[in-house]
From TrEMBL, chain A:
Gene: Gsta3_0
Membrane-spanning residues: none
Entry's Gene Ontology BP terms: glutathione metabolic process; xenobiotic metabolic process
Pfam families assigned: GST_C, GST_N
Protein name (record): Glutathione S-transferase
Stated family: Belongs to the GST superfamily. Alpha family.
GO molecular function: glutathione transferase activity
Domain of life: Eukaryota
UniProt KW Acetylation keyword: no
Gene3D superfamilies referenced in this protein's UniProt entry, alphabetically: 1.20.1050.10, Glutaredoxin (3.40.30.10)
Catalytic reaction list: RX + glutathione = an S-substituted glutathione + a halide anion + H(+)
TrEMBL record, chain B:
EC number in record: 2.5.1.18
Family affiliation: Belongs to the GST superfamily. Alpha family.
Domain of life of the source: Eukaryota
Annotated ranges, domain GST C-terminal: 85-209
Entries under PANTHER family matching the protein: GLUTATHIONE S-TRANSFERASE, GLUTATHIONE TRANSFERASE
UniProt protein name: glutathione transferase
Length: 229, 222
């Protein structure tokens, strides 16, 4: 039996992507099982693998972990990406909370109607540039260090890079007013584990397309309309 | 300056209530500042108190903490309510996150349009009885201990207790199929700090009413 973590999710980003990023940043190899049919999902349910009947699910260290935030916290702590004490952890948690909220606007994007997509794109850019990016720009400017917290690479840095790249996919020049974030992006992208994850052939997933949306809807029987924020 | 944590939020449950519960359960006294006007909120933002321009805000140990989960993780960690090791913390996190999904439905309920209220209430009942409560019923039955994780009182127990009471306010007989949870509820209610928090005059807030909804919309709606 492999001791590598095993990820159960659709073959696409969704809520699992942040977990892929964090494992990759930590240099941890992992396996993936992709949900493609309703039957597969029902089999997982019946087998009792999904505590709250949901994915993401990650088999790691003898546990079947669910709940994205719980999984990410465990990985961060295990691989020393969670600060050196309670106060650094508090800062990391706050920063990750912010980038999580920002990425939440993007998570539902593929499931919106064409008309709502355009409104949502505007909203994503507005939130990024007026609420979230200025915070991290200021943090980096104020302490002048390479990393967000404690002068040490952490989960917060990985999560912010992921968020930056995702927003850039919606508006490529979104970092134009944020010189610190531009430098941050370049720096973090060149960390060996991250650089590897950003190369073609890695387990990073592409921007969700119609096929992905269709698969999720089919497997979860989620046929209702998703409303924009 | 007081050494007590200071909470800034509306005078109502919302996202702050779980924090009040956790501080209450930990036996930590705290102060509260209530947002009543848009001007107050805008001043907080202007003065740099709200990292992402949002409340809850908890001033604690020299930090201006925002983001509900971050705040609760800090409190749990500080007051030994977060298990003894990484694996217990993982369990507590899983349980708390699951309950939080259920609580989110209750949080949003007062803001649903009138024609969606019945459907949303039905969803809360369905999720509580088919997805969430069965999990904790089984956990308690399997290990036969008083507390959810590691035979010790933790954040997960507090969060579950809060959720049980919140759902019961909407669905009074919701625990009828869950004998373990009934016993759990009773045991939690008798823990000194929780017993105190459940008494009149405590910082616990009543269920949201029309005035609360109105205040939220007045302060936050653009």
């Amino acid at each position: 039996m492999s001791t590598k973590p095993k990820l159960y999710y659709f073959n696409g980003r969704g809520k699992m992507e942040s977990i892929r990023w964090l494992l990759a940043a930590a240099g941890v190899e992992f396996e993936e099982e992709f949900l493609e049919t309703r039957d597969q999902y029902e089999k997982l349910l019946q087998g009792g693998s999904l505590l709250f009947q949901q994915v993401p699910m990650v088999e790691i260290d003898g546990m079947r972990m669910v709940q994205t935030r719980a999984i990410l916290s465990y990985i961060a702590a295990k691989y020393n990406l969670y600060g050196k004490d309670l106060k650094e952890r508090a800062l990391i948690d706050m920063y990750v909370g912010g980038t999580d909220d920002l990425m939440g606007f993007i998570l539902m994007f593929p499931f919106l109607s064409t008309e709502d997509k355009e409104k949502q794109r505007v909203l994503i850019v507005q939130k990024a540039t007026s609420r979230y990016f200025p915070v991290y720009e200021k943090v980096l400017k104020d302490h002048g260090q390479d990393f967000l917290v404690g002068n040490n690479f952490s989960w917060a840095d990985v999560h912010l890079l992921e968020a930056i790249l995702m927003v850039e996919e919606k508006k490529s020049d979104v970092l134009s007013g944020f010189p610190q974030l531009q430098a941050f992006k370049a720096r973090i992208s060149s960390i060996p584990t991250i650089k590897k994850f950003l190369e073609p052939g890695s387990q990073r997933k592409p921007v969700p397309d119609d096929k992905y949306v269709e698969t999720v809807r089919r497997v979860l029987r989620m046929y209702y309309d998703v409303k924009a924020n | 300056m007081s050494g007590k944590p200071r909470l800034t939020y509306l005078n109502g449950r919302g996202r702050m209530e779980s924090i009040r519960w956790l501080l209450g359960a930990a036996g930590v006294e705290f102060e509260e500042v209530y947002l009543e006007t848009k001007e107050q909120y805008e001043k907080l933002i202007k003065d740099g108190f709200l990292l992402f321009q949002q409340v809850p805000l908890v001033e604690i140990d020299g930090m201006k903490m925002v983001q509900t989960r971050a705040i609760m993780s800090y409190i749990a960690g500080k007051h030994n309510l977060y298990g003894k090791d990484l694996k217990e913390r993982a369990l507590i996190d899983m349980y708390v996150e699951g309950i939080s999904d259920l609580m989110q439905m209750i949080l949003m309920f007062p803001f649903s349009p009138p024609d969606a209220k019945e459907k949303n209430l039905e969803s809360i009942k369905e999720r509580a009885t088919n997805r969430y409560f069965p999990v904790f019923e089984k956990v308690l039955k399997q290990h036969g201990q008083d507390f959810l994780v590691g035979n010790k009182f933790s954040w997960a127990d507090v969060q579950l207790m809060e959720a049980i009471l919140a759902v019961e306010e909407k669905v009074p007989d919701v625990l009828s199929g869950f004998p373990q949870l009934q016993v759990f509820k009773s045991k939690m209610s008798n823990m000194p700090t929780i017993k105190k928090f459940l008494q009149p005059g405590s910082p616990r807030k009543p269920p949201p009413d029309a005035h609360y909804v109105e205040t939220v919309l007045k302060i936050f709606k653009k």
